[in-house]
Write a structure and sequence with these properties.
single chain; alpha+beta; two-stranded antiparallel sheet; 9 strands; globular; TumE-like
Length: 165
């Protein structure tokens, strides 16, 4: 019997597995080696992920967040009962490092993807670490990446801004 939950719909469009769960191509690109210019600097910060989840859930009652591992997480997954626009459901995958770098990837049941990042990069623009990978596929092509509307590193502010999108 097929599982028609939004979470299973996301899984059907992803490839590869890590820690017993499937990862999307976009996710794999985000988790390159430490010396890759599009990677987060520093280890994942569990405390920041938990704070992000708590702040997000407080602002958005139709969301539920969960760390992929409570003791040694690599990401926070926030599932939305109601996605962006006409989507029946969506999900934010959040990664936050101890150095204050982060990426927030949104995907939904329609195949709509976008991502906000703050980390070092080698794109010609923008000139700082804050950048946005626009929909519909969160493109990483240099000509598509643009400056981000989220330019802060404070967890509570980023969580609130993300919830208001």
């Amino acid at each position: 019997m097929a599982d028609d939950t939004p979470e299973s719909t996301f899984r059907q469009s992803s490839t590869g597995t890590v820690d017993g769960r499937e990862r999307s191509d976009t996710e794999r690109r985000m988790t390159g080696p430490a010396n890759e210019s599009h990677s987060l600097r520093g280890p994942i910060d569990r405390r920041s992920l938990r704070q992000f989840r708590d702040e997000f859930e407080q602002v958005e009652p139709l969301a539920s967040g969960e760390l992929d591992d409570p003791f040694d997480p690599s990401e926070l997954r926030i599932v939305l009962d109601d996605g962006i626009g006409d989507s029946a459901g969506g999900r934010f995958d959040v990664r936050w490092s101890t150095r204050g770098d982060y990426n927030i990837h949104y995907s939904d049941d329609r195949g709509f993807d976008l991502r906000w990042d703050i980390h070092q990069h080698d794109y010609p623009a923008p000139n700082d670490d804050a950048h946005f990978h626009p929909p519909p596929e969160a493109s990483s092509k240099a000509q598509d990446v643009e400056g981000s509307c989220i330019r802060v590193r404070r967890v509570s502010l980023v969580a609130m801004a993300t919830a208001k999108i």
